[in-house]
Specification:
This protein is an alpha+beta fold. The chain is built from eight helices and nine strands. The strands form four sheets. The chain has a three-stranded antiparallel sheet. A two-stranded antiparallel sheet has the order 2-7. Strands 3-4 form a two-stranded parallel sheet. Helix 4 (94-109) links the parallel strand 3 (85-91) and strand 4 (113-119). The relative contact order is 0.24.
Length: 237
């Protein structure tokens, strides 16, 4: 179990995603457990649309998400985008494309229009921060605050959602100053709530990662960060 994941984010610089009703409406159309099963063969744990993992020391458990396609479509309709054709872009990597397909299918089943575009890496990574709605693989960081600082702080280096929220930024600064994980989790509770309330991302699951090796080889079990600790490896004669 790791905090590696696939994040499907709404780029809030695009007009259709400036309205929180559109973002949260699309979220409500998607059952994350279904995405895990169809997109990654169930090989992981269900996530909660806030990019903080249960294995992060400052994680705070919130009430379970409620999937409600009818309510989701109603929110999108209310915002004036009921007839708009959204576009979800992913890499052509098998599990990433399958995840995107699952998300798009559920949005389509809710009665909304959505187009799927699958791109090779050489094309995708040229404009990955510019797409309106796309899926990006994120590898594990040991702390939740590391992820939030990098990906969701206003002006953050990899803030592909263009999310900017003054309360979030202020609380994140506070969380970054707290060394004790239990105390930090008290601040993290509100940070996770803001991520959900603002509909920043659809983040369906946390990936379990695997490594194959000969049974004679020892000490090379899969590492959550893909590390190779060669000094621990050994073989039976």
């Amino acid at each position: 179990i790791t905090s590696a994941t696939l994040v499907c984010r709404f780029n809030q610089t695009h007009e259709q995603f400036k309205d929180v009703r559109v973002r949260t409406g699309l979220q409500k159309c998607v059952d994350n457990a279904v995405v895990l099963e169809l997109g990654y063969s169930g090989l992981g744990t269900v996530a909660e649309n806030h990019h903080v993992c249960p294995i992060h020391p400052e994680y705070y458990k919130l009430p379970p998400l409620v999937t409600d396609p009818a309510a989701g479509k109603a929110l999108v309709d209310e915002a004036g985008y009921g007839d708009f054709e959204f576009e979800l872009i992913t890499l052509d990597d098998d599990w990433e494309a399958a995840t995107g397909d699952s998300i798009a299918a559920q949005i389509r089943d809710a009665g909304l229009k959505i187009k799927r575009t699958v791109l090779p890496g050489a094309t995708y990574w040229n404009d990955w921060t510019k797409y309106s709605f796309s899926c990006t693989q994120w590898n594990m960081r040991p702390l939740g605050v590391q992820v939030l600082s990098l990906a969701y702080r206003s002006g953050g280096a990899w803030n592909e959602s263009a999310f900017s929220n003054a309360e979030f930024d202020e609380l994140l600064e506070k969380a970054l100053s707290i060394a004790d994980a239990e105390e930090r989790s008290k601040v993290m509770k509100r940070l996770e709530e803001i991520m959900q309330e603002q509909g920043v991302i659809i983040q369906a699951y946390w990936r379990s990662l695997y490594r194959n090796y000969d049974p004679r080889v020892h000490g090379c079990e899969m590492h959550a960060l893909y590390d190779h600790h060669h000094y621990k490896w050994w073989m039976d004669a």
